[in-house]
Write a structure and sequence with these properties.
This protein has 144 residues and is of the alpha/beta class. The protein has a single domain, classed as Rossmann fold (3-Layer(aba) Sandwich). It is built from four helices and seven strands. Helix 1 packs across helix 2. The protein is globular. The protein starts with a strand and ends in a 7-residue tail after the last strand.
Length: 144
């Protein structure tokens, strides 16, 4: 487990960039946890940069899934509006995983049954107006 104290959004994005740059090739699932406004999407913006993507990253709250394509694809899910893992499977979860992309899931607590136990887990806690405590768990938790 690795814990990082971020003092602002730029530091959160920079950590996401370093984290993503260290991920192995092939399918990777990143389960994200944190309250509304905690900085999950900021972390994903950094991840996109770390994967070599030059794109505008936004929260897929209303679309459920945003795909960012490049040398290494990033598929960004927001499960805030879903009630169960069954709904995630209904939108093609297994197909996304088979593509060999990095699949990042915000509001993972809503679809916990979809994970096999090999996901990386990112927890972001608000510790102040702009500060956050970010905890990374999984195979690559020592990279930062």
């Amino acid at each position: 487990m690795f814990t990082f104290d971020s003092h602002n959004e730029a530091e959160t994005e920079a950590l996401g960039e370093r984290f993503a740059a260290s991920l192995p090739s092939g399918s990777v699932i990143v389960a994200m946890y944190g309250d509304l406004g905690a900085g999950k999407t900021a972390f994903v913006r950094g991840m996109a940069r770390g994967l070599g993507l030059d794109c505008r990253v936004s929260s897929p709250t209303f679309t459920i899934v945003n795909e960012y394509l490049g040398k290494r694809d990033l598929i960004h899910f927001d499960m805030y509006r879903l009630r169960s893992a069954d709904e995630l499977f209904d939108i093609g979860w297994e197909d996304y995983i088979r593509r060999g992309a990095v699949c990042v899931v915000e509001w993972s607590e809503n679809v916990q049954d979809a994970f096999q136990g090999d996901e990386r887990r990112i927890t972001i806690e608000k510790t102040g107006d702009f500060s956050r405590r970010i905890t990374i768990e999984g195979e690559d938790d020592r990279i930062c």
